[in-house]
Design goal:
The complex is a heterodimer of chains A (128) and B (418). Chain A has 128 residues and is an alpha/beta fold. Chain A has a single domain, classed as 2-Layer Sandwich (Nucleotidyltransferase, domain 5). Chain A contains three helices and five strands. By secondary structure, chain B is of the alpha/beta class. Chain B has four domains: 101 residues, GTPase HflX, N-terminal domain (Rossmann fold), CATH 3.40.50.11060; 61 residues; 167 residues, P-loop containing nucleotide triphosphate hydrolases (Rossmann fold), CATH 3.40.50; 62 residues, Alpha-Beta Plaits (2-Layer Sandwich). Chain B contains 14 helices and 14 strands. The longest helix of chain B has 37 residues. The radius of gyration of chain B is 27 Å and the shape is elongated. Classes of the chains: A alpha/beta (128), B alpha/beta (418). At the A-B interface, α3 of A face α10 of B.
Chain lengths: 128, 418
């Protein structure tokens, strides 16, 4: 059964040399089944720099900003992205149904989001 | 044998489903579960559970006359030793229980070797601690100056080496057989899924192969393969060992080659027991998806909702709706009654690589007859007529026809999609 979901990935959780945190958040809205990605509908990338390691509230703000305007009701991510907090708690803040990775289709989409944040961050850090 | 199941749980963690599964596992191993004991606390290094709970457990054992205690949590060698000394009954953990079930069901030489390898891999890191604990106090039979430690560990390592060598030879043969099946145009389909989903019953229904099935966990340990023809296409269907949550890495390693049978297939029929409640199906599907993904499976997939004879249509529809995000290419069947089997066969056929229609002219000679024999083996023959030539109409893979055309100079007429 096809379902429209948003996969979230955040990279840059380690401090840089100057002690700041440079984070990239990607939201990929796509149609998926339990096994495959059928189509990618939308992609938003946001960057943000923090002086200290971001807390859950800051992470939630970043995610909220990234998924703004996206229509899919379900947001999927790795549990660690939201400090392993229960899905319902994160969902109630974001106003979406949050689901930690379950199916292969979800894992594939999450991998895509992860590759996007990783590469985006590398490219931006390479900039002179 | 009477057994008590014990679990220590971390705060905020729900283990009710894990406990239910442990009871089923224990029953599959032949135990009668006479009680369960759960404690919520942080880990105790000596006994895993607290001293007060240990006392309660001791009383429970006396009262129920249990002969074994099975822990849901992984136990260290010293914890097993301490608990056994205190409780005066045998104490094992979940992984040992799984090993016991595997040992009971291992019928072939390969499965027996794999079980022994898993057991030794589990024992190896514990060997030194166990010997050290057993040597406490004066006991006969233990040599001095640590020599026994070395001998015991060395024996285990030597046996592991021997088993691995024998298994690698068996794996080489299995690999060659798999290759051969592919070469002759066969399509490899594997029945995978959580243990006790009904894979072996489905195998019997689809192929009439006499595989053993039972309403117990891990009845199938060794893969068994049977040939199946769907609209003339050759399919090799393999029944394999079932999945289970949190399978330890040393066990996965021991059963690597059996698991490879699953991951190297062209199509997986992911079987689930549709008669269970949605929560249990979700948990089992999640585990199955995780195992397939982690092991890099990239072939095709059909989700088979089995045992629909036990539920009504409305219930089935509701479950499909609720499990939506974990389903893909779903078909509902009953391996027992045969309902939905034709639909499943059609679905498998749709997943097969498309063949094309050809007409060949083979020479009317010994070589031509040899080629015809090969075509009967590796393609789907529609019509043969013997005149000046042997004219053959068939459906086949393009690669095979190209090969025959190049190697033997056969005249080929192509018609289009099969």
């Amino acid at each position: 059964m096809a379902e429209e979901v948003i996969a979230i990935d955040i990279s840059g959780r380690h401090a840089m040399e100057d002690g700041t945190y440079f984070m990239i958040c990607a939201a990929v809205e796509a149609k998926i089944t339990g096994y495959s990605i059928l189509s990618v509908e939308n992609l938003v990338i946001k960057k943000k720099r923090y002086k200290n390691a971001p807390c859950l509230a800051e992470i939630l703000d970043l995610v909220k900003e990234t998924v703004r305007g996206m229509k899919a009701r379900v947001l999927i991510s790795e549990a660690g992205e939201f400090f392993n907090e229960p899905e319902w708690r994160i969902g109630s803040v974001l106003g979406k149904e949050v689901r930690y990775l379950e199916s292969i289709g979800e894992r594939r989409l999450q991998k895509l989001a992860h590759m996007i944040t990783n590469e985006t961050r590398s490219l931006l850090l390479e900039e002179p | 044998m009477r057994a008590i199941i014990v679990a220590r749980k971390d705060p905020r963690k729900d283990i009710s489903e894990d406990l239910e599964e442990m009871v089923v596992l224990a029953e599959s191993a032949g135990y009668e579960v006479v009680g369960t004991l759960v404690q919520q606390r942080s880990i105790d290094r000596v006994y895993q559970i607290g001293r007060g709970k240990l006392k309660e457990l001791k009383e429970m054992i006396e009262k129920s006359e249990a002969e074994k205690v099975i822990f849901l949590n992984k136990l260290s060698a010293s914890q097993i030793f301490n608990l056994t000394s205190e409780l005066k009954v045998e104490v094992i953990d979940k992984f040992n229980l799984i090993l016991e079930i595997f040992a009971r069901n291992a019928k072939t030489r390969k499965a027996q070797l794999q079980v022994e390898l898993a057991k030794l891999s589990y024992e190896l890191p514990k060997a030194r601690v166990m010997v050290s604990l057993m040597k406490r106090g004066e006991r006969p039979g233990f040599k001095s100056l640590g020599r026994y430690y070395d001998l015991y560990e060395r024996d285990i390592r030597r046996r592991i080496y021997e088993i691995k060598r024998e298994l690698s030879e068996k794996d080489r043969i299995s690999e060659e057989v798999r290759k051969k099946r592919k070469e002759i145009g066969g399509y490899l389909v594997t029945l995978a899924g959580y243990t006790n989903a009904g894979k072996s019953t489905l195998m019997r229904r689809l192929t009439s192969k006499r595989v053993i099935s039972d309403d117990k966990l891990f009845t199938t340990l060794s893969p068994s393969t049977a040939e199946l023809r769907i609209k003339g296409r050759r399919v090799f269907l393999t029944d394999t060992v079932g999945f289970i949550k949190d399978l330890p890495p040393w066990m996965v390693a021991a059963f690597r080659s059996t698991m490879d049978e699953i991951f190297s297939s062209d199509l997986i029929l992911l079987v689930v027991d549709a008669s269970e409640d949605t929560k249990a199906i979700r948990r089992k599907l999640k585990t199955s998806h995780e195992i397939l993904y982690e092991n890099g499976y990239a072939g095709r997939l059909i989700t088979v909702m089995n045992k629909i004879d036990k539920i009504n249509e409305e219930e089935l529809e509701r479950k499909i709706e609720e499990l939506g995000n974990l389903l893909h290419n779903t078909v509902a069947v009953s391996a027992v009654s045969g309902e939905g089997i034709d639909e499943l066969l059609e679905k498998i056929y749709q997943e097969l690589p498309k063949w094309r229609l050809y007409e060949l002219k083979l020479p009317m000679s010994r070589d031509g007859m040899k080629l015809l024999h090969r075509l009967y083996e590796e393609s789907h023959i529609l019509q043969v007529s013997f005149n000046e030539w042997i004219s053959v109409r068939l459906e086949a893979e393009t690669g095979l026809i190209n090969k025959i055309e190049n190697e033997n100079g056969v005249e080929v007429l192509e018609y289009g999609a099969g």
